[in-house]
Amino acid sequence: MEKRIMVKRSSFGLTIIFLMNIMVGQSVSNFGSMTNDRLGTSAAMELLIPVGARDMAMGGAGIATSTGLESIYWNPAGLGRIKGKASGLFSNMNYIADIAVNYGAVGLNFGKSGVFAFSVKAVDYGRILLTTVDDPEGIAGRTFTPNFLNLGFSYARPFTASITAGATIKMFSQNINRVTGKGMAIDIGLQYSGVAGIPGIHLGVVLKNMGPQVSYGGPGLSRMADPEEGRRPPQFFQSQAASFELPSSVEIGLAYDYNISEGLNLTMNGAYAKNNLTINAYKFGGEVTLNLNTLIVSGRTGMDMLNTENFDENIYGPRFGFGLTFETPGPLVTIDYAYRTVSYFDNNSMFSIQLGF
Question: I want to staple 300 with a disulfide (CB 3.0 to 4.6 A). Which of 16, 57, 232, 318 is the partner?
């Protein structure tokens, strides 16, 4: 029995070392004062828009402690910690520039066989005035509506009382005025509670948005031009769009649970995100939980610090939030709210409700 435990712990330790080597060995070149000369060159940036008010209120630092359906975004390993037989989540965020982000997920717990979940994230940009070379002011009053949709299929399960692993396959599509891009990405995560046998210390590691490059096409890329050869009249030619990488990242997080008194608990979280096409970030967050038997009240705060230089800027500031969990005769109801300060735009607010059966 002890030999099996040692083998599992050794395997997990080797996995952590492997992931850290990827994170440390990933090349990030410098160009002038920029921390990454490939910033702004990735596809499907909507994959980075957060969902789930609990973890957003803690600055996204809960890589090691995120649980339930909102952990599908932060670390899919947390999905394996669902205790009930089924769960449902709906989340809405007022994002920057009047953009709305809606997210929904359902999960089924099959016990030793693990937890399966399906999730949908839709980004609502509203109607945008169409401007062209012939109508730069949009006098014709034509509009278009971008459609960004992500679908996720997730699976997670606990392998021991301490170690949980999970993965999500995401399929996404983008449609902007007759130009379409489609692709898929994979998230893989691990969570380890009671690191090195020390109660209250948690470790989490997750690889996000790993997948092939995305190419774009559609009639919106057609342009009227004169042929270079022959006597053919002007005609439409299809522009060949370049392919772009996904915004992949490796994140590692640590957390510590401290029992202040009976029913009162403090959780402190920290995480580091190594990104290939965005700026690397340090994340910090905390949560205070008061258990009143049939009611659990939580207060949260957090922030992230980007590894910025002269020409970089982090428009997102501190964030705050709270949570209420009600034990009813029927489902377990959890209501979470998060508020994030933003420069240049209206501040973000996110509301989510989760039902457990």
Answer: 57
